[in-house]
Hints:
The structure holds 2 protein chains of 2 kinds.
Chain A: H1 4-23, H2 28-48, H3 53-60, E1 62-66, H4 82-91, E2 96-98, E3 105-107, E4 110-115, E5 121-126, H5 140-150, H6 160-163, H7 169-173, E6 185-187, E7 192-196, H8 204-207, H9 218-223, E8 246-252, E9 256-261, E10 275-279, H10 284-292, H11 304-312, E11 318-331, H12 341-349, H13 353-361, E12 366-367, H14 389-398, E13 410-415, H15 418-435, E14 439-444, H16 446-454, E15 460-466, H17 473-476, H18 493-504, H19 508-525, E16 528-539, E17 544-545, E18 561-562, H20 565-569
Parallel strand pairs in A: 1-10, 13-14, 13-15
Antiparallel strand pairs in A: 2-3, 4-5, 5-7, 6-7, 8-9, 9-10, 11-15, 11-16, 12-16, 17-18
Helix pairs in contact in A: 1-2, 12-14, 18-19
Chain B: H1 2-29, H2 43-52, H3 59-71, H4 86-121, H5 126-140, H6 143-157, H7 174-200, H8 203-210, H9 215-227, H10 229-244, H11 247-253, H12 258-268, H13 271-299, H14 301-308
Helix pairs in contact in B: 1-13, 4-5, 4-7, 4-10, 4-12, 4-13, 5-7, 6-7, 6-11, 7-9, 7-10, 7-11, 10-13, 11-12, 12-13, 13-14
Amino acid sequence: MRDFSxxxxxxxxxxxxxxxxRENPYNKITxxxxxxxxxxxxxxxxxxxxxxxxxxxxxxxVIHIGNGTDIQGVDPVVTTGMPEYHVIMALFEGLVSKDPKxxxxxxxxxxxxxxxxxxxxxxxxxxDNAKWSDGNPLTAQxxxxxxxxxxxxxxxxxxxxxxxxxxxxxxxxxxxITDISQVGFKALDQQHLSVELESPTPYFLQLLxxxxxxxxxxxxxxxxGAVDDPTNPWTKAANFxxxxxxxxxxxxxxxxxxxxRNPYYWDTKNxxxxxxxxxxxEQLLSEERMFRAGYLHxxxxxxxxxxxxxxxxxxxxxxxxxYLATYFYLINVTRPPLNDVRVRKALxxxxxxxxxxxxxxxxxxxxxxxxxxxxxxxxSPRSKMVFNPELAKKLLAEAGYPxxxxxxxxxxxxxxxEDHQKIAQAVQAMWKKYLGIKINIKxxxxxxxxxxxxxxxxxxxxxxWVGDYVDxxxxxxxxxxxxxNNRTGWSNHEYDVxxxxxxxxxxxxxxxxxxxxAEDILVDQVPFIPIYHYSTNNLVSTDVKGFYDNxxxxxxxxxxxxESDKKKNE
Amino acid sequence: MLVFIFKRLxxxxxxxxxxxxxxxFMIRSAPGGPFDKDRAAPPEVMIQLNKRYHLDDPLWKQxxxxxxxxxxxxxxxSFKYASHSVTELIAAGFPATAEMSLYALLFAMLVGxxxxxxxxxxxxxAGDYIPMTVAMLGICMPTFVLGPILLLIxxxxxxxxxxxxxxxxxxxxxxxxxxxxxxxxxYIARISRGGMLEILSQDYIxxxxxxxxxxxxxxxxxxxxxxxxxxxxxLGPAIAGLLAGSFVVESIFQVPGLGRFYVxxxxxxxxxxxxxxxxxxxxxxxxxxxxSDIVLVWLNPKLRQQLSNGV
Lengths: 570, 311
């Protein structure tokens, strides 16, 4: 951070000040000024000998990470957000894991598995040296107990859907059956776990790497209270037991979440980091400043306003890559005039998405006319909403609003954030220009906005969706009838059938065909208006090695290590 | 005096109850709940969550339950931090906030009083106008502007002081304390100047001068006592303001204090946490107001006389 030349400059300055003070001992103002500068120099020299946290961290293999908002907890089946997921990834491991370069499934707690021909039955072999962080062996029965716990209604598991892939799991959850042995998972012996699915789920192995299916130590949880109590204090640093490469070292809400190496982790000899510090930093500007001052090896995000500067200076710390997420506007199809598909199409066709990503967001986002990001595990949507203002105008006229005349006022809501506001303003201007209609844009505080969406009390509303796993299903199931996240009032029987068919398809080609047909319906019916696919934009120190850009922004810590380029060059 | 303190403490109880009640119903009238998220939980799960936290009870019952627990000193579990209680979180966040407020107050007193007294003594000269103009600017400059400016200058350009953290790197407490304290320093400067000017024109000061006392003795022994009385009465609300208003500074400098918990709790609709923090801060405000009144009485013989006469 600091080089020799500044130090030399400081020394020269010091000499100059001492001289001035000697020469003018009675001049009050000069003396005061000199004393002030002296203090500054003392601070500065203090700083000279000080290494930054990042430099010290790199030497000691301790990584410092900005982690967005403060985590709510680390129980894999109680928590939901991204910051929590980042921490849980260090503390737990599922039956399988993913390769950070290719995102392909690699062994985790299970070292091998077999799949039946119909894709409905799996058998996993748990590795011999799989252990909990208290040294106890991790067995097949532990997975059965953990999944049983995850299915307990009182726990309030918000990712309950991912457990419904198991045969009869939904029935058990709803109380239609009470015998857990009827649910599709069973321990054959200490190391063999058999799993039966409700339908062939091609993304099942990927799902196993989702935190909602990670094992939790039920026998330990029992010691601290009821296993189905979400407030059970088993996740506190002193009580915690996990099975990942790291264990909790310190958890001070609002300050830091620190994990240290777990000596009982089966692959601990390949773990290079000694500790990870996760800092809750809500303010993007503070985070960027901390990165610049050498406090962080990696930021969670970065302010859009700063991207241009980093790009121009070709800063090697700036990282950007495609991300499995889509930014779009929901349309409330129950409300006139938006119940008319021609109006919806007119709105969708008169947005110049490229202009938005190039001039407004400027963070390498990819403009899009469909929901699923292209090349999601080999799937790319074949139809998309285009930018065609002429056609849009014509459609609006057909719907009874030539040149936007008599078009009722509708409202576009978004959660309070500068970037959303800029996009909304751009879209508002485009609709005014191309269609001659006036849309009111309105920001709402996060929870108010969620409530407005839930109540369908809007015309148009901003939304984003991040894929839980790399498969078109994670996007397309969003718009099924009655889906909790389908906040549009839109329902299409044919669409629901296609998604259902895809779930039961036996080959990838067949399955993707169903998905393409479903996406064709979405593009034709326009219950939403896609804007762009996300890109990650963050700052990662060049000291961080073993960190690979991928679609899921997935960075397992066991592969990461720290090495200073400066040292290497010496 | 004891009767006075006792009376004031008794008065505090209904005030706190009222604060709790108003807050309880106000946060419940805000749209959205603690479990609303962008990825909506299935309806069955929502039912379970509401049941778990008794949000499915009628509001009056929730209120009575909450107040019942409150009287036992139980703030309940946090909705956001599932495995932590509100009391634990307050205990975790308050020390940093209190420490920062203390340093900010010391900074404000040191700078504010010196500037104020100096300006009063140099009444209507450059020595008066310059510090008072700076003070006016200080009052006008919000912490979210001052903080980043100080950070930019001392943290990133000169690299003299750390840009974030609290107690992690030597010197990281300096900038947040100064940022938080500067507004109050400015207020104290203006108030103490006013107070001193008034006292300096009093008869007893003239008498003291006539008796030939030294200037220093007149200022520090006779004038200061009365001159800083308005500052003392300002200190009560100032301390409360420092404690409760530390959110912005805490966010800018990554200080793990209670202010951040409080504001984030409002965003998260963490009902118990909002209530807990509100009641806790109200309690502190009442206590500091009482404390500043006691000091005021102790400094002012007239008030002391009135109290002992039972007025």
